[in-house]
Amino acid sequence: MTGNTQQFIRQLAEQAAPVRKLPRPYTRAAAWIGLSVAYIGLVLLLMPERHDLSSRLHDPLFIVEQLSGLVTGIAAALAAFTTVVPGYDRKWAILPLLPLAIWLGSLGPGCIDELNQFGIQGLPLRHNPWCVPFIVLLGAIPAVAMVVMLRRGAPLTPRLTAALGGLAAAGFANVGVRVTHPEDVSVMLLVWHVGSVIVLSSLAGSAGEYFLNWRSVIHASEKS
Amino acid sequence: MKNPGTPDNHFGELMKAAQEGDAAAYVRLLEEITPRLRQIVRAQRRFLETEDVEDLVQDILLSVHAVRATYDPQRPFIPWLLAITRNRLADGGRRYARSAAHEVTVENLAVTFADKSANTPMDEYGDVTALREAVASLPPIQRDAIEMLKLREMSLKEAAAESNTTVGALKVATHRAITSLRKILVKER
Lengths: 224, 189
Hints:
The complex is a heterodimer. Chain A has nine helices and no strands. Chain A is mainly α.
């Protein structure tokens, strides 16, 4: 063995304090989901304006939309936590695609009806201006928690990991917004809700290398 | 599922012990995986010099060290190690491509005393005052690193002891300081 590397190994071993093993991805995903649900639930409880959801609970498309949005968030969180553990199959990253497709599909019939009714020029895209900021507000704490938790892993695919984390946070926030904002104009939902989730997820992905990189992981390990 | 007695299981046991703070097991693990890593690096990067291969091997070892908490003893060790190795090799390849893109091949490097351009007096090179001001403008950690390592020519170990930090943290601070100095001095030029 080259002397230099031998000496390097000795130095690493000298710094090697006992480490707390990272829990498995599904355990971490469950912890994150618990925290996010608690935060979003608390914000919704504190909201002065409430909507009566009881009539919408009998609408199968509304139920499918909410459930698929929620499952997209859960699947994205699990996939994000898997991508920071070396040795897991990369195919985990495509886990959210199926619920995401169902979510988009649940808006399809409404969009087609509106297109037939109003034509492409008259599609109703006017929207409550607080909707997107509210998704950001509800997703902020889950997103910060996600970043803190992801930074404890290995930054193998920073952009993909961050995009999945962003999708999880924005997906959960969207479900929270839909509880307070149960309109059923599907084109508007597609543009403002799904669009916001996709844009926030893409923004998170493009910033992935700033908060998930080997330099900061190595630096943090030297300080600990 | 792991098979008892396989190298994977052996490495997994050593890493488990290392996670619990067993330094001897950790040294043994790193020493045993190093020849394998060197072999992988050589096979994947045939064009690299021995020193560059060793740099990459050390880079992988440092990464393994930094994320050793992500290893789950219930899962196989070798896929865990190979995922880190592949990732660091890809990063190393990107770094190499970036640095190669900024290098210019010079066939006749003017180094002889007969060549006028090789005899530029050192005093005329650079602006000492600007450099001193640029060093003074650095954040305290980076300034201390530059002063101890470059101006007072202390060893990394001595500087780490004096500043009550680690060798790795000093290396990072020095790297950042040099990047900042380069930016400041280029801007002023």
